[in-house]
Amino acid sequence: MKNILKWTILPVMLLLASVVSGADIPYLTGRVNDNANIMNPETRQMLSDSLKAHEDRTGNQVVVLTITTLGDDNIEDYANKVFNEWKLGQSGKDNGILIIVVPDDRRMRIEVGYGLEGALPDLLASWIIQDVMTPRFREGDYDGGIIAGVKSVIQTLDGEVLTEGVESEEPASEKSDFFNSSAPDMPLAQRILFGAFIFGIIGLFTFIGIVTPGQGWFLYFFLIPFWAMFPIIIVGTNGALVCLITYLVAFPTVKLLLKKTKWYEKAKTDLRTKGTASVGGFTIGGSSSGSSWSSGGSSGFSGGGGSSGGGGASGSW
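Below the sequence we write its predicted structure tokens.
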């Protein structure tokens, strides 16, 4: 009798434990794992063929997973566990991407492997979720949302400018040509905020390079790829080209003009003789390997060489 009770209760306890612990990690059955059964068979086959073609061509492994609910798990932790359990991407390249959709929780996430975080940064992953997939999901169009999301991910990995998204209600004639030059269709307020952040950072380093004697030329060449790529997010391809050309011409022009000023010559002399110089309220400290900046006192701070995981973005609808 005791044995019968033991073998009757044990499976029940295991079942309860699995429910309490949250969603299980399913088996990887292919590039499209529609466990929630929210896509048509034709859609699953078309996405599988498209992702296979992309993987054969580039080596990048993009996988789609739908699961009904996550229970007590949050989508960030669950996506990371699935990604690592499935070992998406090639060994040593970490070039995998997981697109996960949870219909009952109305949540989704694009989890990006280490090797593709530069090609698909968190900002673009968030844009794909919010502006490409979410509007379709709100209309109950899971097939259309996932197809558009996968297409946008592949376009981004191929280096193409994203064109998929929500159409703006603003008449085309009222849009500025500069801000409509193949730029992602994000709201104007969001574009201004992102622009202030991006141009504020690279603008600060550009200013430092211009006013720093000698070593500022290193920053000139170092910042070229940043001026070439980051503005695309805000002003599109054509706008970014204008920004890059302006930077390439303006930086050396202004720097050469500043070389003729007295304060620039004084700063250059002070660096050579004293090791430090004051420029615009900042203190430049010379060293054998370059220059350092501070705004009152010096500090020998550097990173510890760590790395970060869990790149990507999440969203809801």
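Confidence is low (pLDDT under 50) at residues 15-21, 165-182, 286-308.
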